C-alpha cells in the first residue's frame, strides 16, 4: 500500500517538474518473477525504473548503510528495499532475493553496485540471483537527468527495456554460464543506449 502510494505521488510530482517520460519496449517485460537490472548513474534510475514497470513492484537490493537509522530502516523496507553488505556480501546476500523470486516477486539489482557514468564493472550478483532463482533477467537502460537541477530543465527521460535474458544455454558449467550472461547483460546495456541515442537523431 505505502509503496504504491509513494510511487504514484512521486511520479506525479516528477512529471510536473521534469516533463516528458517515455517507456520503450514495455511489451518486453515478462511475467513475474524476474530480476530487472539497470545501469546506475544517479538515484533517478531507481525512481523512473519503478514508474516504468508498474503495476509491478520492484524489491530493490540496497547498500546496508541506507538502513542505519530507525526512520530510514522503516522507510526503505516500506519501499520494498532490502539491505546488502557490499564490502562483504557472502552467500547470505542472495538468500533473501531468491526467496522473493520464489514468492513470485520482482527483484531489482544495479549490477555496477555504485553510481558510475563510465567504466561500468558488471558484478555477477544479479546474474547469480537470477540463475539460482531460475528466472530471467530483464535489462533496462535509463537516459535522462542525473540530478534534480537537470530534471528542472525538462529534458526527455527514457527507460528502454531489452529482451529478457534466459538461462537455457547447454553444455556450460555454472562459472562459464555466469561469465557468459554477465557479458550479455553488459553488451545489452551498450546496445540499448545506442538505440536510445539513435532515436534522438530522428
Automatic annotation (TrEMBL):
<dbReference type="GO" id="GO:0016020">
    <property type="term" value="C:membrane"/>
</dbReference>
<keyword id="KW-0012">Acyltransferase</keyword>
<keyword id="KW-0594">Phospholipid biosynthesis</keyword>
<dbReference type="GO" id="GO:0003841">
    <property type="term" value="F:1-acylglycerol-3-phosphate O-acyltransferase activity"/>
</dbReference>
<keyword id="KW-1208">Phospholipid metabolism</keyword>
<dbReference type="Pfam" id="PF01553">
    <property type="entry name" value="Acyltransferase"/>
</dbReference>
<protein>
    <recommendedName>
        <fullName>1-acyl-sn-glycerol-3-phosphate acyltransferase</fullName>
        <ecNumber>2.3.1.51</ecNumber>
    </recommendedName>
</protein>
<keyword id="KW-0444">Lipid biosynthesis</keyword>
<dbReference type="InterPro" id="IPR004552">
    <property type="entry name" value="AGP_acyltrans"/>
</dbReference>
<comment type="similarity">
    <text>Belongs to the 1-acyl-sn-glycerol-3-phosphate acyltransferase family.</text>
</comment>
<dbReference type="InterPro" id="IPR002123">
    <property type="entry name" value="Plipid/glycerol_acylTrfase"/>
</dbReference>
<keyword id="KW-0443">Lipid metabolism</keyword>
<keyword id="KW-0808">Transferase</keyword>
<feature type="domain" description="Phospholipid/glycerol acyltransferase">
    <location>
        <begin position="34"/>
        <end position="145"/>
    </location>
</feature>
<dbReference type="GO" id="GO:0006654">
    <property type="term" value="P:phosphatidic acid biosynthetic process"/>
</dbReference>
